[in-house]
Design goal:
This is Fungal lipase-type domain-containing protein. Keywords: Hydrolase, Signal. One of its GO terms (molecular function) is hydrolase activity. It holds the Pfam family Lipase_3. The chain is of the alpha/beta class and 355 residues long. The chain has one domain: Rossmann fold, CATH 3.40.50.1820. 32% of the residues lie in helices and 22% in strands. It contains 10 helices and 16 strands. The N terminus and C terminus are likely disordered.
Length: 355
């Protein structure tokens, strides 16, 4: 009797394994292109996502801040954009080690993150993405990229970089709200500017559109990774309602979930590559998203400004010569690619200008 029971269970296990294999094969065939996760690249790009939070424009523009030169070598900043009106910041440059243009977007400042998170609980899909039938997105995230000083400055910097370095790959990154803007930048480059080699990697990114938009996005920008961390609250927002698949927000693939297992001093760091649905129930959705601290540190790297003030920045007078300012007080620091950046004394006693 015991042998018969084991035989039955063995047959059932074989049938289930065979069935799962067929489903996986069909799923991969349906998805087509898939993005490969690269741990080393992730730990490099998270440094750029951290550096864009720096509020000292002199140190950031000259790439001498503690998050810049000490961590990432041979990076040439081409454009640094600060939208004072909307408290947004981004930079474009060329990374020699990656042989790529890197674009980084700053996320929400940590002092206001609780108010921002509370708003996200109530945000509704309210904007039709141009040219994509039934694709709806978050108006605020869409406008933060498309309707501020960031987009035209970034596109201009990319054009100048390509004129100097050729048609090298473009890597777009950002944390939190910066991740949302990075995603919109990636699809903009592919759809509206026919960029051939665009890679997007975000950290702690919120949902930005519905399932239809997620489907379009995964086809147009397949080389995309969304890294989530432990119980980070932001990837759970705006809320996902599985019973209303066409009306609710929906992540696009591919997620990589970072979490720890172990007990006491024996702790193992796990980097789980999730399925291609964008909403893998065995990844970050398997836990409650309740942690702010898990949102502010990825791969051991701090993703916050660490400075007081809503949109406080510091800039030395000589750097102003590299900038232009509009009537709203928004400014762009710009330099020609492959030309030496100015050498400035960046010590705290230089009399930097608070803006």
């Amino acid at each position: 009797m015991g042998k018969s029971r084991w035989l039955i269970w063995a047959i059932i296990a074989c049938v289930l394994a065979s069935s799962s294999a067929r489903e996986l094969k069909l799923f991969k065939h349906k998805m087509g292109h898939e993005s490969d996760y690269n741990h080393t690249l992730a730990t490099i790009l998270v440094e750029y996502a951290s550096a864009v939070y720096v509020t000292d424009m002199t140190q950031l523009f000259t790439w001498t801040c503690s998050r810049c030169n000490g961590l990432i070598k041979e990076f040439e900043i081409i454009e640094l954009v600060v939208d004072i009106q909307h408290c947004l910041q981004s930079f474009v440059g060329v990374a020699k080690d990656l042989n790529a243009i890197v674009i980084a977007f700053r996320g929400t400042q940590e002092h206001s993150i609780m108010n921002w998170i509370e708003d996200l609980y109530w945000k509704q899909l309210d904007l039709n993405y141009p040219g994509m039938s039934d694709a709806m997105v978050h108006r605020g995230f869409y406008y933060a990229y498309h309707n501020t000083t960031l987009r035209p400055a970034i596109l201009n910097a990319i054009k100048r970089a390509k004129e100097c370095y050729g048609d090298i790959p473009i890597m777009v990154t950002g944390h939190s709200m910066g991740g949302a803007m990075a995603a919109f930048c990636g699809i903009d480059l592919k759809v509206n500017h026919e960029a051939r080699n665009v890679q997007v990697m975000t950290f702690g990114q919120p949902r930005i559109g519905n399932a239809v938009f997620a489907s379009y996005y995964s086809k147009l920008v397949p080389n995309t990774i969304r890294v989530t961390n432990e119980h980070d609250i932001v990837p759970h927002l705006p809320p996902y309602y599985p019973y209303f698949p066409q009306k609710t927000y929906h992540h696009f693939p591919r997620e990589v979930w970072l979490y720890n297992i172990g007990l006491g001093s024996l702790v193992y760091n796990i980097e789980k590559v999730c399925d291609g649905s964008g909403e893998d129930p065995s990844c970050s959705r398997s836990v409650t998203g309740t942690s702010i601290s898990d949102h502010l540190v990825y791969y051991g790297v701090a993703l916050m400004s660490g400075e007081p003030g809503t949109c406080r920045i510091v800039m030395d007078p000589p750097v102003v010569d590299y900038g232009t300012t509009d009537l709203g007080g928004n400014f762009i620091l710009s330099r020609n690619p492959a030309t030496p950046v100015i050498k400035l004394n960046t010590e705290s006693d230089t009399g930097g200008k608070n803006v």
